[in-house]
Design a protein that fits this description.
alpha/beta, six-stranded mixed sheet, 46% helix, 14% strand, binds zinc ion, Carbonic_anhydrase_CS, EC 4.2.1.1, lyase, Carbonic_anhydrase, Carbonic_anhydrase_sf
Amino acid sequence: MSDKDKQSLAASAPSPEAESADAALRQIVDGFLHFHHEIFPQQEELFKKLATAQAPKAMFITCADSRIVPELITHSSPGDLFVTRNVGNVVPPYGQMNGGVSTAIEYAVLALGVQHIIICGHSDCGAMRAVLNPDSLEKMPTVKAWLRHAEVAKTMVHENCNCADEKESMPILTEENVIAQLQHLRTHPSVASRMANGHLFIHGWVYDIETSEIKAYDADQGRFLPLDGSHPIPVATPKARF
Ligand SMILES: [Zn+2]
């Protein structure tokens, strides 16, 4: 076989990357077909009800990380959670950025009337690791700019914790980031107003991928407590004033 023949054969055969991309897409489509033919018919009544209206009771803001599945870990059904996800479960402070997160918050609070907003961080978060190692973001200027909203958490950890290494810093940074994003959340007028009149409650959680445990921020105690059903549910909402 001539070199030319070999080249044209190589060009027509799918590359390993293309084959693996095909397999990944096939798995997603097969999953959809399974849902469509097997799962959907079992819950047809629910989907009929949801076809024209939604009334979720809670908004769930979490990281885009593929290992976090809000409906799975809260055993929720379609229609239960209004979910917004982004790198690092960030909530930009009001007025700084009229982007997707701010829009979703305003819509959830004012149009849907959700009663709870949960901000959920997680273990082994790549965004938190990047906050600790900003050099890793040199080729990702958009991610770098976005994670400036988590800068306050990094300063908190650097100045207040005597962490020996990244392994020690990561869980504390992850918790501090959730607290920082709760503070940003409170700068949104729709949120502040409904919290002040006792119609909206905010929560800060951290989910552990390996154990499935959740810790929730207790604003009164200023620390995260296990969400294990043995205590009252910790809340991050200040007292209502109206
Ligand atoms: Zn993450």
